[in-house]
Every structure is written in C-alpha cells, then in structure tokens.
Amino acid sequence: xxxIMPVALKAQELQPIDTLKVMDDIPWEKLFETGAExxxxxxxxxxxxxxxxxxxxxxxxxxxxxxxxxxxxxxxxSRIIARRELAPFTxxxxxxxxxxxxxxxxxxxxxxxxxxxxxxxxxxxxxxxNRTSIEIEKRKGYIDNIYPGSRIKNLSKFRISAGDxxxxxxxxxxxxxxxxxxxxxxxxxxxxxxxxxxxxxxxxVLAAKLIIGNYQVEAAEGLIFWRAxxxxxxxxxxxxxxxxxxxxxxxxxxxxxxxxxxxxFSLDINCLxxxxxxxxxxxxxxxDTLDQISSIDQAGLFRTENELSKKxxxxxxxxxxxxxxxxxxxxxxxxxxYRTKFRNPFILxxxxxxxxxxxxxxxxxxxxxxxxxDLFTELAVDRSHKTAVIGGIxxxxxxxLSFSLIARNYPxxxxxxxxxxxxxxxxxxxxxxxxxxxxxxxTIDRLLISTYYDQFNYPKPTNAFPVSSHGNDFLAxxxxxxxxxxxxxxxxxxxxxxxVVDESDLYGxxxxxxxxxxxxxxxxxxxxxxxxxxxxxxxIEWAKVMYAGMKKTERGxxxxxxxxxxxxxxxxxxxxxxxxxTDSYDSKIYEYEDxxxxxxxxxxxxxxxxxxxxxxxxxxxxxxxxGVKYSQTIKEGIKSISSGLDEIEGDTQSMLSLQIYVRx
Amino acid sequence: xxxYRKYSQFLLPRQGKRMFAxxxxxxxxxxxxxxxxxxxGRGTKAIGMANAFVxxxxxxxAVNYNPAGLTQIKSIQCSAxxxxxxxxxxxxxxxxxxxxxPFSFAAFALKAEKFGFDLxxxxxxxxxxxxxxDQNISGGLSLxxxxxxxxxxxxxxxxxxxxxxxxxxxxxxxLGFSFSNITGASIGRTDEKIPQLFSLGASWTPIDDLxxxxxIEKDIRYHESIKCGIEQKVFGVLAFQxxxxxxxxxxxxxxxxxxxxxxxxxxxYSHINLGWTHQIEIICRLDN
Lengths: 664, 288
What we know:
heterodimer; A: mainly beta; 9 helices; 33 strands; disordered N terminus; B: Porin; 4 helices; 16 strands; 11% helix
C-alpha cells in the first residue's frame, strides 16, 4: 500500500486525515475479491498505479477519466460534471453532497483525484521499483537441477516523465514519458527473462498522443479489446458492470502476452477521437505437430524444455483503429476494427476447428449517459461473421438506490483473442449468454446493502464440457460503518453451475456424470479502529460445496485475525494469523492479503493448516520506501506440498519478499 | 484432555471409563506423545461459561485464555484452582496456582500447574505479560515451560508461547483473539505438535450485571468448536454462569460468591460421552 502514500499525503493537504486511515480506507479487497487470482494481479494493480501517478483533476476531468476511478459509475461521474458546471469544486469534501455518493466512492476519490493540481514545480518525475522474492523451501525442480535458474523472483520497473498538461515542455510537446520493466520468475535463468518498455509523447495540439513500444488498448465493453485483467463482480455490484473503455495506454505490467507492441497514436479533433495502432509482436504459444497455434500461453513461466519451446514461438502482426464520436453531451458512438496475421495458423475454437493465418474483428458501440441513467451497448463481428453483443443499463434514480442490468450473448465459436468482456468465462469471450442484475441500497446512513444475480448459459458443448450447460451466481452483501469508522460486513455468495464428476457404475467402471455443483460462501468481517495507529481485522468464512443428487458435501472454514499498526509515523506493520480447514481443493477459500506496494495477493487456502505473515513498510526518506514481507503456510497431515517439479517436501511453504521503491 | 476428544467416539460403557482412560494414556503415550494442553479451562467463571472466555478474560485466568485480558485486573490477585478428578477420575486431577500483579499500563502473572498421576504427569510453570497498547486495546504473551513425565519412558520439557489481543470494539462489546503454541512446538520421537489453538470471540455486556460471550476456537488439526456463555450477577455478591459448546458437545454451569477480599467459585461441565467434571477455586484480591 505504500504506493498510495504520496497521494494519501496529498489528500491530507485537503483534509487532515490520519495517514493510516487513509491507506486503509482503500477497499482493495473489493477490487479483487472475486477470488479468481491466485497470484500477483499486476495488470489491474498497474491501473491503480497509473491513477496514483496521474491523479484526476475533478474540475477538468472527462467523464471517462472520472469513471476510471474505482467504484465511480458513469452516472455519478455525470453528476460530478453537472455539479462543477454550477461552481468549480474547491474541496473534495464538497463531493459528499452529490446524490448517490457513497463513503467508498469518496475514499477512492480522495486517493485518486484532486480539486486542483498541487504545486508541481518539478518538471521531471520518476520512480524506480525493485522487488525480490524467494521461496525458502526448495522445489523438486531445483533439487533435481531441472530448473536452470535460481529460486529468486525479481521485478524491476523504472518510469520517468517530463512535463505535464499544466506545465508543458514546449509548445509542441507537453509531456514525454518512458518506462522499462524487467522480470524474472523463479527458476528462469535470466533477470531479463521478460522485458517491456515504452515511450510516450503527448502533444497539446489536438490532444495527440504517440506511444512507441508496449501498450494496451481498451475499447468500449471489451468485446474486441481489453487489458488482461479487470475489476470483477463483487460487493460493488454497480461500477464493475460497465467498462467504458476509450483509451490506449502504455503497458508496464508483467503479463507476458496480453499487450500490443509497436506504435499507437491517438488524436482528438473537437468531438471526434481517432486511435490508430500497429503491433508486431512475438507470442508465447503452444504449437501442435502441424505447427498450428493450439493455445496462447498465459503463465509466463519458462524453465523447462517444454516451457521454453513456447517462448516466442510465433508472431502476430496487428493493425487496428478506433473512432469515437461524441455527438452531443452524453451520447457517444464508437467503432473499432483490426486485422491480424499470425506467422503460424491459429486454430479457431469453433465448430469446424479450422486454422487461419488471418483474423479480423470489427464492431461498434453506443452509449448514452446522463445524471440518472447510463445506457450502453457494444456489438462485434468476427472473421466467421459471428456476432457478439453486450448491452446494459445502469440506473440510479435516487440517492439511495442504484440498479444495473447487463445482457450478453457471445455465440459459440466467436473468436476474440484480444477481448475480455463481462462474463462468467473470464477472457474467453465465446459460447455464453446471460443476464446480470445488481441492486445497491443505501437507505440508512452508514448501512450499505448490495446484491447481484447472474444467470448464464453455455449453449454449446465443448471438449472440456460435453453438454450444454447453465448456472447462476448470487451475492448478498451488507456493510455497516460506525461513527468512528469501524466496519462490519457480512457477505453471502452462492454459485450453481453444472459440473462433470467421475462416478463408478455397477461394474466398477468410471463414468462421467453431469450434475449441478453448488457452492456457498458466507463471510463475516469486522474492521475495528482501535486508535489512530492500530486497527484490528477479524474474519470468519465458511464454505460449503454440494453436488446435487450426491451425498458428497464438502466444507471449509477460515478464521483470521489481522493487526495493522503504525509506529514512529514512518513504519507500517501488518501481521495476520489464519487457520483454515477445507475438505479438499474444491472447497478452497481465498484469503486476500495485504502485500508489498503494487502487489495484490489472493491465495487459495485448502486442506488443514495455518498461514501467517508479517509485513512491514517503511518510509526511509521522503522519496524512498522499503518493504519486507515474510509469509508461511503450514499444512497439517501432509508430507509434501504441490506435485511434479513444483513439489516441496514437508508441510511448510515460506516466502520472503523485499522491495525498494524510489520516487523523484 | 486432548486424548478424550480424539477417542471419545470409542467410549461407550460408563463403568469402563476409568480403565479406558488410564489404559489409553499409558499405552499410547510413547507413540503419540500425549499432552493435556488442550484447554479444558482454568477458573470456574470461564468453565461455567463453557470456556467462551477469550473476549472476557477479566480475571487472572486470562493467563490461560487470553493473556491480554490481564490488563483488566484492578488489584493483585492470587488463586488456587482444583479439579479433583476430571470425569470422576481421581487420576486426572489438576491443581493450579496463579497470581497476577497489575500496573497502570501493564500486568504480570505467574502460574504453576500439575496434572495427572504417577504413571502420567504433566507440570507447567508459566509467566504472562500484558500491555495496554492503547486506551482500547491490549496485547499479551505467555511463556510456559511444560514438562511431561511418563513412568518408564522418562520426561520431556517444552517451551510454549501463547499470545492474545483484547479490544474494546464498541461500547460494552469486546473482541478477543488468542493463539496458543505460536512457535509450533512439538514433542516426542514423531515430532507431534502440541495443539495450536486459534480462538476468536466477542463478548457483550448489554446491562451492568449481564455478560454474554461467543467464541469460535479452532485446533489446527480438528474441526472448529463453537462456544457460548452467559453470566448474570445478582445483588453484587453472586454470579451465575452457564454455557454450551459444540465439538466436543459440552454444557456447563457455575456459581461465584463474591466477598470483599476473596471469591469462591464452583463450576461443573458435562461432556456428552465422558460425564461430569467438578472444579472449585478460591481467588484472593488485595483490593486497595
């Protein structure tokens, strides 16, 4: 959390708030609570980092910029704009009077927005981050000398910028920005196993922006283009439902495939925005015996011969563009298209299983936003002329009620290799249709109730799932905050989905059976503010997994206690002990953890055991932060952890991480 | 004791209970490295409330449940606690002595305990320290030296470190947390871990004389145990406790008679398979 400290301090300039409170007010967990990530969620955290570096000016920000603040919906953004047209904001506290503004939204705004640019005398700003982690216990791959590199995981990131909108460098160039990243995963040989970089020039004329190097594109609702990760469904049932992408941005994250490499250019001409991009990039992919691309690698681990064979195994050349027209206030039309060519034929996930060198996609999107309603839709057509569509409405009629409805239809065989749209299947934008409904009620001050229900279908059988399938997902969440910022919440989640299980028939043969799998999780969480420097977080979570028609029921329990403290105004301390017991991996429970700056870690705990960690971050000097984290998982009744080359002998898994973060 | 929970499903005939318990302790001790550190409770108030005491811990028996609670003690206290025979078995006798000294911002306590009989014996001495971290929160640690003696097999000592936190969450609501055997000390040739217990609970005082308590306790190796307790004071001189717990299923009751400088307490609990256990204590207070 240290990376938000400078912004927190800026927020303090506006309103004196205790630093610890400011840091802890960010409900990070709500951004990543869905539990899909069992590793560092660097891409989504990178977006937060971008917000930290470039806090949004509430008096000049566009609708899209305001919407990029977590928890802020387009409708709320529209109300902020309407309010500032009456009179510019002089303090962030004035936002509290805006209809529908929740405490959670305010906490994000305090961190990522300003009412005016604070004294930015320095023209050059930069930062350097280096994080090194090592797993204490050796895995089998190291003992057997199969992994060629050391156990160390290392990440280095350097970013520098000169000038900004308020103080341009020259009359032609207002800002120059550059960044470079190198990463080594455990077991990999080189510290530069993955490297990424970019240069970005912003020109005041026509608000033009040129990026050379690695970048990512976000377009509309993500049917055609979106980054690798997104804020997912969770207790915030309204804001994550709407993506509203309309930007190209430099890429400096660690996902080794989900970006474009080349040149991107954007231009604003009155109400028209043009974006053009060209990418020529190596891809890590699995090739079959015919040298066809059967899958694109997402793990980014290159240690063994098999893994190394995927590295840079093919190439993609992509040319695309996007046009956005703002016809009148609130109405936006957009069009997106690209053509791409692979060096090896790409096996399409459609009914024919055909392979193609060239793919293309095109689509358009329409949205209308005012201070009560946000209507949006996106439609995309792929190479096979299959059409995917997503549309929805966010309606906030009163200060206490918000409502979202999203319908989606991604046909079987639809091929979007750069998309990441709202849905159950994550990045696989195909073979799914469904309806999502979310309601948030904020009737009594300090009490927030939210719920969503998502009904989804997979109309066509796949190789992994032999019949058409369906399911639903329900969440109910209630949160109460006391006058002294103590927070109590209860969350119930139920998910029902068809599942394939193995059963023995009368003759002892293993047969596959498709039955509904129902998972229920109930979580109680309390966060107590004991003093200006001490907070206590207690959590109990129960999990239950049932298979309809079978007697098998699995249970899980997680109890944890966290203490957060601050000493000498410079050192933050976090410590947690969690005990867990689940019948198997199937009933695992995700335990969100505080981690080093720019890391979100959400490990899945299963089996029976104990996990604890200690985390300390220290502001050594004004511009230098250091952090250390030691964590340990001890499992009961097992002789080894994991399997294959990743097997660890014994019941203990420990990790030490160190980080240095310099800003100037 | 830990062993009774582990094997309670096998205990059926009441008359064979004594034989079984003694046999079990003696015959398995060398391989399982048994220990009595499972928290069956110390102090009649805590036991009367079914050991739902981690968020209460308002007397010197906090040393067993949550050492952070020692900061609630207002005067020097010393106590003698006796379980004449757990489940009616005189071999399973426990005697504990403890004393606590409070300071303005901290408290210090000592404890000595003996359990068992000639063939199997456990003794423990311990010291606890609690500190007020802030007006509404305390933290505490206990360091105990635990010794096992098994006739014919020798003895073994271990240091056990326990810690806890007690916080005034809201008006009249306290939240407590404790973790025993933090270092994961183990014993015996098979390195069997001495139980690591994680307890999290809340207590509520809706009116001055009424105390309600809830706790969830998890031994890392076993299913969680849920406990609820209640205490009602009458006329300022009597306090009645009652409690219920599951896994193992127990119910309990207790009474405390409060005199100006000392308290006398009695409590009993019933294990669903093993029957009743009675305990008594006397606490002396050196009030100002």
